[in-house]
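Notebook entry, structure prediction.
Reason for the run: the old model in the group folder had no record of what sequence produced it. Starting over properly, with the input documented here first.
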Amino acid sequence: MLLRIRVRLPDRPGSLGRVARMLGAAGADVVQMAVLERDGGRALDDFTVMWPAGAGFERLLDGLGSVPGVQPVGIWPTVEPQGAFPDAALIGQLAAAPERGPLTLADAVPGLLSADWAGLAEGGPDGHALVHCSLVAGPEPDLPDLAPLRPRAFTAPDGTQYAICPIGEPEDGAWVLVVARKDAPPFHRTEVFRLAQLVGAAEAVLGGGRESGTKGIDLVRTS
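New structure, fully documented this time:
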């Protein structure tokens, strides 16, 4: 299975190599690494690794804790999208089938952001409600209060991590793309920025933002 591992480590030569060697010694195969931030001599990095199915994470946590200056932030399962340039591939899929573009966007985002699920929420007098949800284990989730409607991340009272981005004008009745994950660190600002860029690109491709989103959602509701 694939895991996402987020760590803080010293921002100096050799640190990444020590973490990668430790992961390899523990039995993990590193397939991707991304630098999320660098500040004050420290870095925050995400590693994506192959890990034996069913194996616990204790060996990884112990190994990371043994590397001087390294602080594990979180380890959680992920599903990586196919292809070398998944964001570009997604935009191509939206252009090929614009009538279901918002749904395609919601279905693809969990893989892009290592999330459990994503959905499209519609605003109403009683707040926002899901009108489409990607595959999710268990019953369809209830949404927390999404206000204020702007690209942002927050932690719900039950510990679920959310990232949201309005589609079209951020008004009370706007459509909102909602992304969620549990047992994982909060969405980093670079992940929120990526989400906002994906929504902006989708609006440009679909031509009309919220109107296109409404068309796609109505098609699914009535089909």
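Summary: The two ends are 35 Å apart (CA to CA).
The old model has been moved to the deprecated folder.
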